[in-house]
Amino acid sequence: VSDGPNRWLPRPRFGYVDVYAAIALLSFLVARWVPVLLFHVQCPLRATLGIPCATCGMTHAFVYLAHGEVARALAWSPAGALLAGAAWLLVVADAARLAAGRPVPAVPERWARVGVATGLAVVALSWGWVLWHGDGA
Amino acid sequence: VGAGWSPVSPPAPPAPVELPAPFADRQGRNPFVAYFSTWKLALIEPQKFFAHVRLNQSGAALLFALCTFVSVSILQALFAAAYLSQMQAVFRQMGTTLPPEVAQLFQSVGAVGPALLLVGAVAGVVADFVVLFTMAAVLHLLLLLFRAGSRGFDATLTVVGYSTGLALIGLVPCGGFVALVWLPIVLIIGLAAAHRTTRGKAAAAVLAPGVLLVCCCCMGGSMMAGALKGLIPQHGGGTTL
Question: Which residue of A17, A18, B104, B121 has the smallest Cβ count within 10 Å?
Answer without folding.
Answer: B104
